[in-house]
Amino acid sequence: MARRDLESVKTSLEARRTELVEDLERMGDEIQSIGVEQEKERGGLGNHFADDGSSVMEAERLSTMRADLSDLLSQIDAALHRMGTGEFGICQRCHQEIGAERLEAFPYVAYCINCQTILEREQALLSGG
Questions:
Q1: What is the pLDDT of residues 99-116, one digit of tens each?
Q2: To 5 degrees, how large is the angle CA 83–CA 85–CA 86?
Q3: Domain segments of the chain: what residues?
Q4: Angle, CA of 118, 121 and 65, to the nearest 5°
Q5: Residue among 10, 15, 14 nearest 86 (CA)
Q6: Of 9, 69, 102, 109, which residue is 20 to 30 A from 36 by alpha carbon distance?
Q7: Residues forming a β-bridge with 90
Q8: How far is residue 42's CA from residue 40's CA, in Å, rounded to a whole number?
Q9: Radius of gyration of the chain (CA)
Q10: Following DSSP, what letter does each residue of the chain receive, concatenated?
Q11: What pLDDT is stored for residue 40 in this prediction?
């Protein structure tokens, strides 16, 4: 990948990283506020089971989204590290170049499409799916 293109991708990844960190902090605050609201309402008049259920569902939804964003943040951090070591754009499994189209769509990927497919199949077999 050309140096200018690499700098552009790095800038884009760093901007996305900043967004993710902000989103994760906001979600953490929201999850915490749901817990605080639940504690305040516990046992009080007007506390309704449906409200409790909605709060629990919202906290679970935020927790799931937060886990997904944390995973993406880890992938971006790893891609930025690979840029620093000169391994960006090289498959971490077969050590071949990752296709330009794949990197353009997902600049944080660590594997070429063939190795990604193999890894997903292996994981599906291990998980019984």
A1: 999 999 999 999 999 999
A2: 65
A3: 1-88, 90-129
A4: 105
A5: 10
A6: 69
A7: 97
A8: 6
A9: 20
A10: --HHHHHHHHHHHHHHHHHHHHHHHHHHHHHHHHHHHHHHHTT-TT--HHHHHHHHHHHHHHHHHHHHHHHHHHHHHHHHHHHHHT-TTB-TTT-PBPPHHHHHH-TT--S-HHHHHHHHHHHHHHHT-
A11: 53
Note whether 90 and 96 are within 8 A (CB): yes
> What's residue 45's pLDDT?
41
Nearest Cα to 16, choosing from 66, 76, 100?
Answer: 76
The reported pLDDT for the residue numbered 83 is 96
Taking the alpha carbons of 124, 65, 84, 10 in that order, is the dihedral positive or negative? Answer: positive
Q: Report the amino acid identity of residue 116.
A: Q
User: How many Å apart are CA 70 and CA 125, to the nearest integer?
Assistant: 25
Structure tokens at 50: 């449906």
The pair of structure tokens assigned to 107 is 């600049």
